[in-house]
Amino acid sequence: MDYRELGRTGLKLSKIGYGASSLGAVFHDFDKARGLESVFTAIDQGINFIDVSPYYGHYKAETVLGEALRQIPRDKFILSTKVGRYGENGVNSWDYSAERVCRSVYESMERLGIDYIDLINVHDIEFADLRQIVSETIPALVELRDKGVVGHVGITDLQLENLKWVIENSPEGSVESVLNFCHYCLNDDKLVDFLDFFESRGIGVISASPFSMGLLTERGAPEWHPAPKPLMDACRKAAEHCKAKGYPIEKLAMQYSLSNDRISSTLFSTTRPENLLKNLQYISEPIDSQLLAEVQEIIGDQKRVSWKNT
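Predicted structure:
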């Protein structure tokens, strides 16, 4: 397993990280025993970075992950969770106030069975008043960092412009990392346009969703996927082309998304140990550059077409 430094934090993350959103049944129901085994398998394979959120499954993902973490030595994993986005009884909610985010940190630690969070992220800042994020949310988390409750502070969002604005308007060193999703994958590489900026500020970069939330799979995007139809159609054609070549689009997508060593870690989520091992095998093999060119030609003018977060 390769490990990459996360900005100036001193943390060295496995280049592929375990995204625990699936443990919240975000995408589909799962067998909990196998879900727990997927976490153990990740650790056994050298994956040391685990990311979760109270929002995933409305606290379920943190609760299930906590069952696994209680059985794993604390020095075996670097844990990231989030504040600001929540939910109860299937209804989403947001609260970026200082009081709520501080309370959220302690609630997460209780669910996860830990007494220290390596990286705390402000979740999906586009749903907040960015001025509040700068003036209230981040300072509250920095105070927890100063107290030793959390190790480092980051922000997450789909919209790269929001991440840049918050960093530009926050005191230097308060934001230490960014987590962005669906912008370094086969159909969208917009993240590369922002890497120079992040690096100039010493900020580590984490990417997520190498399959673009299901667009880049043989099964295809779920019904709820917010992508516009032309992009869905293009990705479906690309998947069919890969299948005809005997090269699953999932393999190409994983290989491409983990190919940039300027990205500290790329998060991948599953509740199936065998799926985790399969994808680790994918990234151990060289990418088919000819097929990559063919797929990007098929995607064509739909490249970098994005959508609003939901």
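Summary: The chain has a mean pLDDT of 95.
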